[in-house]
Amino acid sequence: MVKRxxxxxxxxxxxxxxxxxxxxxKPLNSKIKQNKEMLSxxxxxxxxxxxxxxxxxxxxxxxxxxxxxxxxLSLLYSKDESYDLIRTKVLKWLMKKAxxxxxxxxxxxxxxxxxxxxxxxxxxxxxxxxxIKPFLEYLKMVESYDKLILIKNLELYLSGQEFNIAIxxxxxxxxx
Length: 176
Prior knowledge:
By secondary structure, the chain is an alpha+beta fold. The chain contains 3 helices and 4 strands; from the N terminus they run ααββαββ.
């Protein structure tokens, strides 16, 4: 027969084992939750990249039609406006809208203008930091701008709970 003291020792060992298991399992469970959230954010980012890639393909296929059929010239800046004025105006608007959505602007670059005979391409590179959902809302706002703004390049890097985002916007000025 098992003595009362042995039962007490076994009970204490079981309680200690259960407490240790509790301290091991709870952090793993929270880690799994975090990984699921991160996976859903990465999935959203992937879907966004896929959508942007499909738009870029569509625009590249229809770019010859846009040049031969100037129906939407109102979406381009007129040649009366200087490059610097256009850049400054669009950059201020982009930065203001990013801040409204809670995105942190870490840096921006203004590359050289790509001049063409009929259309000049003006680029702005923004580096942002923030969560995916506000960034997607930000892109919807950019899409609604009164002039044509295209996303030329988009890079997303995970950094802790947030993403580092490098995005190049292109807008255009008529030269004719």
